[in-house]
Amino acid sequence: MTVTTNGIFEIVERGFTLEPDRVALTYGDRGWTWSQLRDRILRLAGALRAEGIGPEDRIGFLDKNHPACLETTFAASLLGAAHAVTNFRLAPAELAYVINDSGATLLIVGAGFADTVNNLRADLPAVKRVVVLGGDADEYEAFIANATPLKDRHEASPDDCFLQLYTSGTTGFPKGAMLTQRSMAAHNKGLLSAYGFDADTVNLVAMPLFHVGGTSWALGGMAAGGHTIVVREVVPAEILKTIAEQGVTHAFFVPAVIQMLLDQEGVVEATAGLKVIGYGGSPMPAPLMARTLATIETPMYSVYGMTEMSGVFCVLGPDDHRNPDRQHLHASAGRPLSDTIVRVVDPNTGVDVPVGTVGEFWVKSEQAMAGYWNKPDATAEAFVDGWLRTGDAGRVDDEGYLYLEDRVKDMVITGGENVYPAEVERVLVEHPDVAEVAVIGLPHEKWGETVHAVVVPSHPDHADAEALIKYTRERLAHYKCPTGVTFVDALPRNPTGKVLKRELRSTLG
């Protein structure tokens, strides 16, 4: 993948050269042309340089969605530094861990999080300066306005890490995935091809920018020269209003947000002009899939991606969603993008398994991260001879479609048989008495482990363990079925919404 000396900033330079007065970015009632955006980024880079930020340094960012986050990503690239975006949903102790792990010496912090950071300052020894964004005294705008635009730009190398996004941390502390000029350029190329992004695209960025579903989606649309609309947070009625009034053509959501949108009045009319709805981040339950396809006509694209791959690397396109003779594909993660190779490997032996057999997905692509920041052991574990181990268990069919089964670490081994909890969860979630479910393995004297379901009932009176076990036995092999059910009010989740199965195992085991 060719990377120019401007790296990711070439996106902005190209927009400025071709159409300087065209609106590039919108946020609320504010908009910036390519010319204005370029000037702001160069000034921000100049201000950061004046603060001593240079190659391989980290700049921290903590706020809900805001254009300043994208501006900082571009500015970091111009300095040879990396932008470490922090998940604003983290608890204070978790925030301190991520900020300290990144080594950021300067933080750009939304006014709503300023008090939290001030209370943590004694625990952030590396942080020299905090720039408050928004609020009554908007230091960020003054930071830009008073700066001299950067003239001496860093010459970008393909291996430069310019963006550091943190993994969800479902099995431990989050790790900083180092995304490079090469990896993001490769991702943008795949995204433009898969979704038909072009200069006429109006791209809605509603997912958090600390996630690839936010930042990578935004960069892909900008790379095409399109108009990017950033919304601060998910308010379903406001999102539909924005889609309708701003003529949005492309949007990406997690399935939970799609469900919220479907619950709004006027969803059909508001989405009539959409050309693409991408969704991912978690599997879409079959009932929601059926409701979505029956309600809206927008072409649907299911994606399989991960932070370590700079975003999406598999796509299930709209034709596969709406083919009545191939509804089994609704459970598929799609097929790899053209420059990505996926193997299905026995995680214990490293040997490829036969078609249709479950193993671990190993991926080779220029989209792959450089590694985990300051974690050489974790990086060495993640890569095998240039192949990235996804940690995801699944299978591939004879047409090349991937099917995710579960996380390798969540696999239950009962009586020598491998059980992937996601398969059991897919059955249970279709029972009308089940609102949410997580399946785990619990220790068992005879079988080693036994399958156990943790269920949030759809109604407090609908908590019948025997009925649910019987339901699974009618649909699954006996050894895959739960031998016990625990009912809870809510499942424990991390700040990105993923279920923390380690907490369930710890509590129930």
Automatic annotation (TrEMBL):
The keyword Ligase is annotated on this UniProt entry: yes
Residue span(s) of domain AMP-dependent synthetase/ligase: 19-373
Keywords: Ligase
Domain of life: Bacteria
Record has Iron-sulfur as a keyword: no
A GO MF label: ligase activity
Protein name: Long-chain fatty acid--CoA ligase
Alphabetical list of CDD domains matching this protein: FACL_FadD13-like (cd17631)
Entry-linked Pfam families: AMP-binding (PF00501), AMP-binding_C (PF13193)
Location of the AMP-binding enzyme C-terminal domain: 423-498
